[in-house]
Amino acid sequence: MYAPPSPSMPRALPAEHRARLVETAREVSFAPGARLFEEGGRADRFWVIRTGTVELDMHVPGRRAAVIERLGHNELVGWSWLFSPHVWQLGAEATTPVRAYEFDARAVLALCEEDPGMGRDLARWVGDVVAHRLHASRMRLLDLYGPYGAGAAV
Q: Where in the numbering of this chain does the Cyclic nucleotide-binding domain appear (predicted)?
């Protein structure tokens, strides 16, 4: 399955904005099998993975949840906090022990209000992640449910 590289925080945010963002973080851990969030739940936080792996999954009626993407070091977990109606579009589960930075969406949005440049850079970063996840979701669903070879990269 082809997927372009995922936009990670170190490459996406200028150093000064990254430093301000990390100041609001708290360190958290998740055991393998722990659910970070469920599709359809209230999105009020997000994470950047320090170590470990998180799988994003999508409910498929009548079937087991489809794994859309595996995320690792420095990748963003959760973008729905930024867009109305602030509801998770996918689910997420730790597949290995995970250590991450957790961010409260309200606190981050307040920072963005104070510093429009930071808000612009953060929105651009999250937008890049959303575009990547949309592509990954489409390719994965074609792999799972489309005609043979429908999801193959050309």
A: 9-78
> Which contiguous run of DSSP H or E holds residue 137?
helix 116-145
Laid out side by side, the sheet with 66-71 consists of 35-37, 91-94, 54-58, 66-71
**Side-chain half-sphere CA neighbours of 34 within 13 A:** 13
Q: Record the pTM.
A: 0.82
Give the pLDDT mean for 1-30.
74
CA distance 102 to 111: 15
**Alpha-carbon gap, residue 31 to 119, rounded angstroms:** 32
CATH class of residue range 9-145: mainly beta
**Domain extent listing, the chain:** 9-145
